């Protein structure tokens, strides 16, 4: 029922990509997004696609799994496509009737923007699929540590993220369970018009919020009873170290970006 | 209503690295008026199994036949079927959502499309079943009740649909002895007086000894034994080998037999053990 959201869902296998330092992976993901935004030709997107596909093989994550992350965002992608298609001004008209005007420029832009969005999601999905939420927020905390000098709450932010990520699957499971329990009492979540469907959500959302608040309270209590008092003076169980593989990954990313830049110049 | 399960297999998250076989080629059938006790260690697939029986989970392979008709067939109205097969989930108190107890219990009957008068009658009936005083609790918020009371409200929410088969997933888990006793005697009444077929999942062998007419024992997604409580509870080694116990009375009986007392091997109810102990006592001429 709710199994199709891979964003924030760790895929626990052992692979080269899984073993990379999370800090490096995070930085490289950002670099990847930058690379995606530098692409200006369809050939460039083909390179990016090949790269993502290759990474998913290396990471032993089925490509299907990666694509599933797109599903919840399909409306946004379609909307982006349509908005750009209809509202980008241009010269070379392809189709024109009534108030609709599609030009070559608008078509190109629509394709660009939606492809960018798609690769953005694929890239970040790959990161979250291969990096456990805990190491991810560790990485974020370490990368944001310099900002502590200007009183930026890096640790608190990372902790909040860890907790939020940690509870996504739990809440999904809970949603699934409550949904089933209400269906056992004859609730109908699937048919009816929009208004009826929204109203049918009440028996789902109320118990979900109640349990989320209860969980939050329990968690706070459990953390305090284990002497949690913020990030001050906290040491780490696993100290992150940069390995040869990490340098190699950086090298490959530089190569990719170089290729994209070259493509921008040549084509 | 007869329920027949044929070669049911269920795999969670099939085709991914997280896939887990929860049920593995399970077959059995249940007749009208039975009180089935479903037992098995934690993670043996009990909850997964009962969710198949009213169509909330779809089998990976295999069939569930209700009165000979495939539950997952094209034409079957599963919503209508769920009225006849009521399922009370594990920890059902977390499904409460309405402002008042009465409204929450009315959720099921309302979905059935009953008239206001009939709904009210159903709410009163269900609250009476679970021994909740209508006058006192009907207008209370379910969130200000104790855990045990919430549990009873949630069970009432299913009873209000008057299902002919009632499935309960660990209805007594985490309750005090009195709360447990209330729920068990309610089930006993439903089974005896209204001839409701009951399927109960429980970890308490004593509860099973008291109520079940037949036991189905699961381990690692498979059915490993099935039979009357007397047959099952006399197989002490088998039960302990799959991580289950036997009722207190059966254990006491076994310990006494080892000490050489003349008792039948298959006692499992406290009353029958008492009878035999009194007999021994008398034979020894102590009264
Ligand atoms: N939603 C799910 N996704 C993946 N695996 C699951 C899911 N629910 C259960 N499982 C797995 O299926 C197996 C059977 O679980 P199930 O909940 O049916 O056990 P159970 O017999 O009810 O246990 P308990 O006595 O603890 O309630 C377990 O190994 C469990 O890890
Ligand atoms: Mg269970």
3D architecture notes:
- The complex is a heterodimer of chains A (267) and B (287).
- By secondary structure, chain A is mostly helical.
- Chain A has two domains: 1-131 and 241-267, no CATH class; 150-234, no CATH class.
- Chain A has eleven helices and two strands.
- In chain A, strands 1-2 form a two-stranded antiparallel ribbon.
- By secondary structure, chain B is an alpha/beta fold.
- Chain B has helices spanning 46-53, 78-84, 101-111, 116-129, 134-137, 147-159, 177-193, 205-211, 229-233, 236-241, 248-258, 270-283, and strands at residues 3-12, 20-30, 35-40, 61-66, 69-70, 85-88, 165-169, 197-201, 214-219, 222-227.
- In chain B, strand 1 and strand 2 form a beta hairpin.
- Chain B is globular.
- The termini of chain B are far apart.
- Classes of the chains: A mainly alpha (267), B alpha/beta (287).
- At the A-B interface, helix 8 and helix 10 of A face helix 2, strand 6 and helix 3 of B.
- The complex binds adenosine-5'-triphosphate (ATP) and magnesium ion.
- Magnesium ion (MG) binds next to helix 1 of chain B.
């Amino acid at each position: 029922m709710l199994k199709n959201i891979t964003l924030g869902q760790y895929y626990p296998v052992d692979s080269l990509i899984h073993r990379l330092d999370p800090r490096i992976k995070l930085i490289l993901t950002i670099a990847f997004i930058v690379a995606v935004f530098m692409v200006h030709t369809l050939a460039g997107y083909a390179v990016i696609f090949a790269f993502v596909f290759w990474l998913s093989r290396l990471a032993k994550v089925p490509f299907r799994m990666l694509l599933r992350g797109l599903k919840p965002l399909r409306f946004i992608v379609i909307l982006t496509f349509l908005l750009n298609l209809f509202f980008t001004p241009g010269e070379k008209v392809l189709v024109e009737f009534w108030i609709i005007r599609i030009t070559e420029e608008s078509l190109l832009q629509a394709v660009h923007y939606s492809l960018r969005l798609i690769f953005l999601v694929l890239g970040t999905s790959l990161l979250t699929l291969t990096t456990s939420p805990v190491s991810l927020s560790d990485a974020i905390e370490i990368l944001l540590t310099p900002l502590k000098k200007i009183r930026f709450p890096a640790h608190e932010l990372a902790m909040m993220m860890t907790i939020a990520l940690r509870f996504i699957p739990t809440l999904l499971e809970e949603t699934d369970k409550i949904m089933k329990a209400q269906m056992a009492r004859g609730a109908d979540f699937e048919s009816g018009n929009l208004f009826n469907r929204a109203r049918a959500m009440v028996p789902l959302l109320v118990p979900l919020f109640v349990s989320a608040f209860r969980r939050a309270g329990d968690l706070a209590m459990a953390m305090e009873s284990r002497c949690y008092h913020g990030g001050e003076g906290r040491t780490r169980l696993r100290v992150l170290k940069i390995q040869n593989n990490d340098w190699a990954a950086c090298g490959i990313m530089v190569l990719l970006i170089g290729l994209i830049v070259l493509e921008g110049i040549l084509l | 209503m007869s329920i027949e399960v044929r070669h049911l297999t269920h795999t969670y998250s099939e085709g991914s690295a997280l896939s887990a076989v929860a049920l593995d080629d399970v077959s059995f059938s249940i007749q009208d008026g039975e009180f089935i006790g479903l037992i098995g260690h934690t993670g043996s697939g009990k909850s997964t199994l009962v969710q198949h029986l009213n169509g909330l989970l779809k089998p990976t392979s295999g069939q569930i036949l209700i009165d000979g008709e495939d539950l997952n067939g094209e034409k079957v109205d599963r919503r209508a079927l769920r009225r006849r097969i009521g399922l009370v989930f594990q920890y059902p108190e977390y499904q409460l959502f309405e402002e008042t107890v009465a409204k929450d219990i009315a959720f099921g009957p309302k979905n059935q499309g009953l008239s206001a008068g009939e709904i009210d009658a159903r709410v009163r009936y269900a609250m009476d079943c679970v021994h909740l005083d209508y006058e006192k609790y009907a207008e209370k918020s379910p969130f200000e009740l104790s855990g045990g009371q919430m549990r009873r409200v949630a069970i009432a929410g299913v009873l209000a649909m008057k299902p002919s088969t009632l499935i309960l997933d660990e209805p007594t888990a985490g309750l005090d002895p009195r709360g447990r006793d209330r729920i068990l005697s309610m089930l006993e009444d439903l089974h005896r007086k209204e001839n409701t077929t009951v399927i109960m999942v429980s970890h308490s062998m004593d509860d099973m000894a008291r109520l079940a007419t037949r036991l189905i024992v699961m381990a690692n997604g498979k059915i490993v034994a099935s039979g009357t409580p007397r047959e099952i509870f006399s197989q002490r080694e088998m039960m302990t080998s799959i991580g289950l116990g036997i009722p207190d009375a059966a254990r006491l009986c076994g310990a006494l037999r080892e000490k050489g007392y003349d008792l039948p091997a298959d006692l499992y109810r406290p009353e029958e053990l008492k009878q035999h102990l009194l007999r021994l006592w008398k034979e020894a001429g102590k009264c």
